[in-house]
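Notebook entry, structure prediction.
Reason for the run: the old model in the group folder had no record of what sequence produced it. Starting over properly, with the input documented here first.
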Amino acid sequence: MRSKTLDELEGNEILAKPIMAEDFCIILPEGAVLKPSYIKKLRELEIQKVYIKEESEEESVLILKTEMESTVKEKIKEILGHHTYHHNEELMQLCETADNIIVSIVQEDEVAEQVYDIKERSADIYEHSLSICTMAVLTALKMNMPPNVIHDIGVGCLLHDIGLRYLAIEYTDQNLSMLSDGDMAEFRKHPVYGYSALKDEGWISDISKGIILYHHERLDGSGYPLRASSLTEAIQIVTVCDTFDEMICGIGCDRVKVHEAVEYLKTFKNIKYGATIVDTFLKFIAVYPTGSRVLTNEGELGVVIRQNKEFPERPVIRILADKKGRKTEQEIIKDLVKIHHVFIEKTLDD
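New structure, fully documented this time:
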């Protein structure tokens, strides 16, 4: 988004903010195309400047299209939200939901070459389950895993936290480190509760059941509930995606920036998490999501406007202010793949 005077407009720009009269009536809504006749009318109304969308702002790439994500999330919420212990009939519908997610991802153009924007956010159990499902499915696709295994990973992700439905303690919206020893011990049983509820169901595979039981285990035996260290590749994929999403959503912990979650996975690669899986996962995660405000090593304030394929840590940024804090008058774009001496020093909170 960038403000421009009417004299700077060439026509056919898209409004990023609605234009409002003094009585707050909307003259033109957000998203309107500024035809030359509209610009002429705005001059007559003595409108001084407008906010327009820039082409780069349309380049944020999501794993799932927004409308698909919204529909699937509601389906997951409808099914999991009404589930009660051992009433598993409706859960079978999530097998079809997982397949819909897989098909949607596979049909995306250049799915193997994109770098995706995964932004920090707050999330409930339903959005979290959908998020790790999409990330785990994409990781498995990039690792050329068999279609039946990818399906089972998707189903396992959508059901991985079903055991939380059976807990008698309050755990939402708090850092788990603040729980009492007794409550923490109870919380760590949720994978067992989920597995126990579904272990005898014939419609769910052993791979999916294993994901439910072992998604909090780690390769070094530091996880729970069984301190297992021998984990299948499918389970390892889910543990990486689950950890990452919990960190950027603040689920059971303080929320962190995407680049901090990325560094955590790098730190514990080959310790808690499989190296091949971490490397595959991080190849498609934008370290600095589109729209992130950043500070460069040269002291400039910038905003990420698009990603570079194969270089998720080196995006393209637009400079907003120089090292003295002065706003830039002209548009300055820096592609960090081409400008080697400039790098992002830190991200800035809104």
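Summary: The radius of gyration is 23 Å.
The old model has been moved to the deprecated folder.
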